[in-house]
Amino acid sequence: MAEFIAYLIAGIATGSIYALAAIGFTLVWQTSQTINFAQGEFVMLPAALILLAVKLFGLPLWAGGLLGIAVFLLIFGAGFKLVVVDPMIKHGVLPLAIATMALSIVMKESAKDGFSAEAQSFPSLVPTDMINLLGISISLQHLAIIVVAFAAIGLLQWFVGGTRLGRQMQATAQNPTVARILGIPVERMVLLTFLLNAALAVVASLLISPIYLAKFSNGETIGLFAFIAAIVGGFNQVRGALVGGVLIGVADSLAAAYISTQYRLAVPLVLLVAIILIKPEGLMGRKEERRV
Amino acid sequence: MSAPAVQNSAAPRRAASRIDAALIGLVLGAVLLWFAPVGMGRYGTYVLSLWLVMSIGVMGLNLTLGYAGQTSLAQAAFMGLGAYTTAILTTKYGVNWYAAFALSGLLTFGVGLLLGFPALRVRTHYLAFVTLAFSTLIWLVLRNEQWLTGGVFGISNINRPNFFGIKLFGALEFHRFVVVVTLILSLKLWWLVRSPWGRAFTALRENPVRAASLGIDTRTYTLLAFAIGSAYGGFAGALYAPLVEFIDPSPFSLSQSLFLLLMVVAGGAGYLFGPFVGALLGVVLPEWLRFAGSLYLIIFATIVLALLVICPQGVSGLIERGWHALRRKTGGAR
After folding, report:
1. Residues of chain B with pLDDT under 50
2. Which end of chain A has the lower number of beta carbons within 10 A, N or C?
């Protein structure tokens, strides 16, 4: 039992990181109706940029962190929207989705050649100790991940639902034309969404890199799991992304422990196929009204 | 729009002549490629053959994506299925290559139907998700089922087929064999695209709602396009295995499927010659960019990205646009 709960907590921890990336999927989906196949690389890159800034300029970690995050937000939040999404959105959704695949290769290979082909250790913000709680040993890192990720998601929910700016953003996502008529600066709201997506990726990167190390190929797994999480939960719902992420994380962790380490990847995939056959809009999703 | 009567009479004739030009282009290209490796050496010939084999795989995906408008993220997995089927049948069971080739195509066609049926029944969009899952599962099986696939060590000593008693062991002989098979497969596709089936595919791509209103059973045609496209992946794999003579799971991973998708788009989705251009960019360009070392992937992806931003129709679309511009210019001068 104690073992089971430990696996469960580890699963929820990685799952909440998938949820952060999956929310990014849904944000980009809502504002541009496209799938960002580079989402996993978005999570991989901030850690690499931070370490690069520290290495290149000899900065202290906090300064390198700020610089790396700023550069990332600028290029992959604002730049991504202005350079890739804006010119392409008029050609339809498919070319844009494929452009993001090309972008993911550029990001991954650039990280490999420009940063390092080897996995680099990334400093943990919390102690890596284990604590003992009623006979169950729990990693502090996992607890911290869960707390920070849920706090970030809660903050996002509050921002979107509880503030004026957030509600304008939501209105833009749901119907840009009406939002424009109502006098909402649609362009600025879309830009804000992309910045939020990049910011969530930064948070996920800071949380996961101390455990998985900063490595150019991290994006593949994270992107795949986040993608599955987003579909399972419902592509058009922030809530769905959270449920999907945690579900996938737990399924993966338990599958690795109790079924087979070789086929652990298969369990979320089977879950994915089963869910889209039974409930295509995802567990928490609502049916799309808009034509895709 | 301004002169519908004139355009209506001219359009079918122009379309017909363009299709004939495509046929001539295919045959001429095959003749050229038959003699191309002379003086190129073993490795150059191998790269040329590899280009054609990849073109077949990209061709299949082009049918799915370019003509039927569906995203498949499993073309490399279908290639893997074909390659492993052929390799296992020929090395372990001594099956004739031609039979293995046919079976590879049949198997991938069947799997395509099996995957596409529920995915397209649910919603067209979900084919991408199902193929993504399938691609990863195939990769897992290839890696983990050592008794069948050799695991990470792969399968070696894959024999090259005979051609009416002529052994095709040499790079040049096998290249010519690949040229013939590629020609046959691309002629088949050329016929398919021109046939009523192909027109239905195109109608589907241009406007699914209108196609449905014209009485085209969209679901069946989309499913068929996907299954035939998958079978081309299987055929490509069946040729790939004897070409490289050793296979392991790495060239059939999900990222390779994405790479094939990029080749379709870079070459021009929905153009007959698009796959050849795309595979040229994806297979041969790295050889030219050898001086750049591992940077070639960045260069390739950046080219695709720039191409997509400037011209989403890919290289073929760019050429067509340039050709029309040129025609307009000379026409104006006259």
Report:
1. 1-14, 16-17, 333-334
2. N
Please tell me if residue A103 touches chain B, with a CB cutoff of 8 Å.
Answer: yes
Q: Going by C-beta distance under 8 Å and a sequence separation of 6 or more, which residues neighbour residue B9?
A: none
- The pair of structure tokens assigned to A214 is 């900063």
Instruction: Tell whether A272 lies on the interface with B, counting CB pairs under 8 A.
Output: yes
Closest CA to B232 of B86, B49, B58: B58
Measured from the Cβ of residue A34, the count of other Cβ atoms closer than 10 Å reads 22
Q: Determine the length of chain A.
A: 292
Computed on alpha carbons and rounded to an integer, the radius of gyration of chain B in Å comes to 20
| Predicted TM-score of the model (pTM) | 0.86
CA distance B305 to A99: 6
Q: Which of A33, A72, A73, A63 is nearest to A176 (CA)?
A: A33
* Pair of tokens at residue A255: 């599958």
Q: How is residue A45 written in tokens?
A: 């890159």
Give the tens place of pLDDT for each residue, A55-112: 888 888 889 899 999 999 999 999 999 988 888 888 777 788 888 988 998 999 899 9
Report residue B261 as tokens.
């998708």
Q: What is the interface pTM, i.e. ipTM, of the complex?
A: 0.81
Model pLDDT for residues A253-276, shown as the tens digit of each residue: 999 899 888 888 888 888 888 887
Write phi, then psi, for A126 (nearest 5 degrees). -120, 160
